[in-house]
Amino acid sequence: MIKAMSREIARFIQSIFEELKMSEARYKDLLSEAIEHYPKYLDYLNNALKIIIKSRKTLVTSTISN
Predict the structure, then answer these.
(1) Residue 31: its pLDDT value, please?
(2) SS3 sequence, the chain?
């Protein structure tokens, strides 16, 4: 066997690739969660905007009435 690098360097390089694989898996998990929760977040924002718009209309209507 030809020794191209020390065992320590080989382990270091291997650990980097293992970390990348784990990071990729975590990325996929987070992406799946984001895809699942994004529509819920949009619904929340949509409802919040409806409440804000409704309260502004009420404020404008009451200001005009006075």
Answers:
(1) 87
(2) CCCCCCHHHHHHHHHHHHHHHHHHHHHHHHHHHHHHHHHHHHHHHHHHHHHHHHHHHHHHHHHHHC
Assess whether pLDDT exceeds 60 at residue 3: yes
Provide the pLDDT confidence category of residue 1 given band limits of 50, 70 and 90: very low
The one-letter amino acid at 4: A
Retrieve residue 48's tokens.
């919040």
**What is the token pair recorded at 35?**
């895809």
Percentages of the chain per state (helix, strand, coil), in multiples of 5? 90, 0, 10
Percent of the chain with pLDDT over 70: 85
